[in-house]
Amino acid sequence: YRDTAAEEKMNPFAEQEAWEEHQIGKATLKYGSKNKKQASDDYQFVFEDQIDFIKASVMDGDNVDYDEEMADSFEKSKAKSALEALLDERKKLPIYPYRDELLKAVEEHQVLVIVGETGSGKTTQIPQYLHEAGYTKRGMIACTQPRRVAAMSVAARVSQEMGVKLGHEVGYSIRFEDCTSEKTMLKYMTDGMLLREFLGEPDLASYSVVMVDEAHERTLSTDILFGLVKDISRFRPDLKLLISSATLDAEKFSDYFDSAPIFKIPGRRYPVEINFTKAPEADYLDAAIVTALQIHVTQPPGDILVFLTGQEEIETAEEILKHRTRGLGTKIAELMICPIYANLPTELQSKIFEPTPEGARKVVLATNIAETSLTIDGIKYVIDPGFCKMKSYNPRTGMESLLVTPISKASAMQRAGRSGRTGPGKCFRLYTAYNYHNDLDDNTVPEIQRTNLANVVLTLKSLGIHDLLHFDFMDPPPAEALLKALELLFALSALNKLGELTKVGRRMAEFPLDPMLSKMIVASEKYKCSEDIIAIAAMLSVGNSIFYRPKDKQVHADNARMNFHTGNVGDHVALMKVYNSWKESNYSTQWCYENYIQVRSMKRARDIRDQLAGLLERVEIELTSNSSDLDAIKKSITSGFFPHSARLQKNGSYRTVKHPQTVHIHPSSGLSQVLPRWVVYHELVLTTKEYMRQVTELKPEWLVEIAPHYYQLKDVEDPISKKMPRGEGRAQSDR
Ligand code: CDP
Ligand code: MG
């Protein structure tokens, strides 16, 4: 019995395309002194057709060989000690046969560009090889990652492989979390953290090797690092510089680093069958879920990787999948659902790396993080809805937003490639072939060209780099964005009229925070409320995971939350009250449960708060609390966030004061029903509307008092209050 009509409906992937010709899929590197082609005196390695090229075998049951092979090696390694087994695994990585050649290349060249596809062993192995070769005798080896999760998980893996405790010989350093010690020789860190290390050690003297990893991601910090490490490599000939990338466009890196040689590690890539949808999908999340379930019930063993855009989407998908599979009961094999995104608690992250039990199938719901920075073994099916969350920045208004955006062709190819690492794979693209060819950009625009540069400009200025227009950028940012950053820093009094760092600016630069937050902290000295302000800054830095709102107890949770808002104190002060109450409860977990607060987030806030307290000491600001004087606290907030002020409109929406734009108070705000006439907000988020998140009431005269160079009286004169006495304006407005 076959219901072909239903089958047709179930399978929207009518069109298929061969795996792109230029993919690394069917090539391998013949590397060795015999085959090595030398061009000038540089290394030049060439891909050649893979000999043991495995034909596309995507029919049911055709993947037996590869499963047996896996099972076999699994059995063998079980017998050995964990460490030996890990050593075995290390030897199987694509990079292993090239260990000595790689070391020789590093020895001979100061700068080396290394290319090898995701999973070949670049991140975990290269620092170990260099350590084994003695480089750590001269200093630490730094390996930068664009993402916190990657830095942590890779460091954990490498410490296991070396049989040492994490934080000892192998450690990691991410913002607000330093897991290293005196012993540390291999240091995995976010690119942003290495950037900050320049502030304390401009020549990076404690390092013998710097490996800028995942260079293809072109994050803002990576791009700035390029300029800085290129500069220090000139006066530190002993410093080795490795630029490693998972994509093939390495020439650009090589050109930038004065024609540095390119070392290519051949991938073991199996063919990937690409499927497009026949028609565009109206709801890609639903389409992704349906596709995952279809694969689960119709396709041979192999795990599934689904690319989604963010935590919320992943949680929704997880819930729906759980619900639907529960409905099917024992009719289908077990489906393990593993989410992975940047904010996922560490203890849950390791779940995605655990082998899938026999008979079950794993579905990994991931953000872009799984595109290149994390390797998950056993993935055979990739579902690619074609979107990611991307920052965009409007230099005219200074507004930054995180938008769900179509990915680039380069991203689409990386995603597809995740399915062909251990055997032939299949990729289901939830968009049409027409879309792919005509609508997607070739490459993702580097972050430096679509972001607010205030933070980076402040860092560069504190490194004494004055002439930013002539900084050696690989791709320069728009001049308008640079100018906007200078303007903002000037408004915050971090720079003087000549563009030089002021004392305020120098103090601000000590804090690993956005300049507006740093300014808020530095300004708290004047208002004698530094202790209250760092609690607020810490709570803001934790993000939106403080309050817990379980589906079945939403009313209780909302009531508990509103308790902190008594007196319409505003979201910032409410956060401070949460922190202080928790502190008074002696940091009690029970207290958190009772108040629908996430313990984990609070612990993190406490950690950040303590570090900020340490930094206050460094910039010689006394720790003083003034928590009963809310105006003092609000004025400190305004000192940092005055560019983010908005005024109520007659229809209940708000209009930003500078660069007028219509915005709304986020429904989660304690002030969303109160609608004060003037507010200052922490950030804008665009969902269905442009929302202000974390809002505090403000007196308009503060703007002129605090930022006279930014606001004039005419900006803050209230047209409503001119017509009627103050206080009645709101009652009269038509909301
Ligand atoms: O950096 P690259 O993508 O070239 O590879 P890698 O991250 O060094 O990964 C090499 C291998 O280490 C992968 O095949 C993973 O199986 C393993 N690995 C792991 O098990 N857990 C991690 N956190 C990272 C890597
Ligand atoms: Mg890597």
TrEMBL record:
Q: Indicate the enzyme's highest-level EC class.
A: hydrolase
Q: Which GO terms describe its cellular component?
A: catalytic step 2 spliceosome
Q: What is this protein called?
A: RNA helicase
Q: Does the keyword Nucleotide-binding apply?
A: yes
Question: Among the record's GO biological process terms, what is one?
Answer: mRNA processing
Q: Which residues form the Helicase ATP-binding domain?
A: 103-266
Single annotated GO MF? ATP binding
Keyword list (alphabetical) reads: ATP-binding, Helicase, Hydrolase, mRNA processing, mRNA splicing, Nucleotide-binding, Spliceosome
Quote the range of the complete protein represented.
Answer: 326 to 1060 of 1060
Enzyme Commission identifier(s): 3.6.4.13
Family that this chain belongs to:
Belongs to the DEAD box helicase family. DEAH subfamily. PRP2 sub-subfamily.
